[in-house]
Amino acid sequence: PWHAAYPAPRNTPATIRREDVLDMIKQSAETSSRDFILVDLRRNDHEGGTIRGSINLPAQSLYPTMPTLYAMFKAAGLSKIMWYCSSSKGRGTRAAGWFADYIEDQKDEQMQSLVLVEGIKGWAKAGGEYAQWMDEYDDEFW
């Protein structure tokens, strides 16, 4: 597999529930202030929509770009970096673990690396309120 070229994450990443993420998104929409980012790690399976405001960074490109990503996230004042893939059991957990390792290596106690529980599948299948906070949502896909 593509990730065999990289070390296993040292850290088991913390998780975040979709309910908490939705609350954060709604609050940021009201205040126009955002200290978090959602990273969609899907590449070939990037279908059916994505959580509004997410950036798409295929997992295969993550490991070598971590120093640059960290610097950009830090400069933007982000404190929560939330990762997801289809189910967040493979790529999402691995990416969140690698980034948690990187944050730890920087001795940064302000930034967190979190994995979205159940990934985009859990989000999309959670019902209408979640679907309305997706870009390019395709009901037929889910």
TrEMBL record:
<dbReference type="InterPro" id="IPR001763">
    <property type="entry name" value="Rhodanese-like_dom"/>
</dbReference>
<dbReference type="GO" id="GO:0004725">
    <property type="term" value="F:protein tyrosine phosphatase activity"/>
</dbReference>
<feature type="domain" description="Rhodanese">
    <location>
        <begin position="32"/>
        <end position="132"/>
    </location>
</feature>
<dbReference type="GO" id="GO:0005737">
    <property type="term" value="C:cytoplasm"/>
</dbReference>
<dbReference type="GO" id="GO:0005634">
    <property type="term" value="C:nucleus"/>
</dbReference>
<protein>
    <recommendedName>
        <fullName>Rhodanese domain-containing protein</fullName>
    </recommendedName>
</protein>
<dbReference type="InterPro" id="IPR036873">
    <property type="entry name" value="Rhodanese-like_dom_sf"/>
</dbReference>
<dbReference type="Pfam" id="PF00581">
    <property type="entry name" value="Rhodanese"/>
</dbReference>
